[in-house]
Write the structure tokens for this entry.
Amino acid sequence: MATLQETAVRRATAARTVRRRLSWWQPAVAFGVFVGLWYGVAAYYDRTVELPYLVPYPHLVLQAIVHDTRPDGKPTGFNAELWAALGRTTVVSLTGLAAAIVLGVLWATVMAQAKGLEKALYPYAVVLQCVPILALVPLIGALFGYAFLSRVIVTVMIALFPMVSNTLFGLHSTDRAQRELFALQGAGRLTRLVKLQIPAALPSIFVGLRTSAGLSVIGAIVGDQFFQRGDPGLGVLIQVTASRLLGPELYATIIIASLYGIAVFLAFGLIGRLAVGRWFDFS
């Protein structure tokens, strides 16, 4: 019986491995179809509408990302500007994310200590999530200037709520029997927090971290578009290329911004799997 079970397990494992190896072609086919449709739409806007900058050909967008020259061989300077803007956006997003992590965990930890504190403080987290950022732009700019600090503040405002809500949920998700055991042992509030609540909340914290990481990229780009003084990032570059009708450069900037957001999301997802993946299904 054990041999039959082992054989069945091996067959199921081999089948899953084969399915994983064969699953790569589906995204590849979808990407090929997407690129083909893109070429068709670009040809329509180029030859029929005669507005080629609205939908440039994919190879021109790729050339704008990789090469720093026009088709006629003249340098554009865009390539160096693109990567410099990506570096500035990266600094803003990671700084805002770090601040959101610290503030979110502390905020949730304070609320988890008593129901009264949660009822008093949680509505402000919801308000911060719902308030239109655009309405606060003049105030933030007047108080903190229109450069790096204001961009970070906007990033924190956009990325903060997932950290607060997920951390609070995790701190409240401890097993009731374990809480009662700690109470019987006379454990203090700090001991329960450090040895029971925080370990139990780690999966939820990392879920919030992954979500906030993606939102921090959006916050950095949005803040860059709101506050255009200082060193420009991807948000300013998007506006500049759009105003100058530079189609390939505009699409290149949008693609780089999107790829950066995906990379940040996947990186923090990997960190979560490495941290809690052995005892929690962090998918």
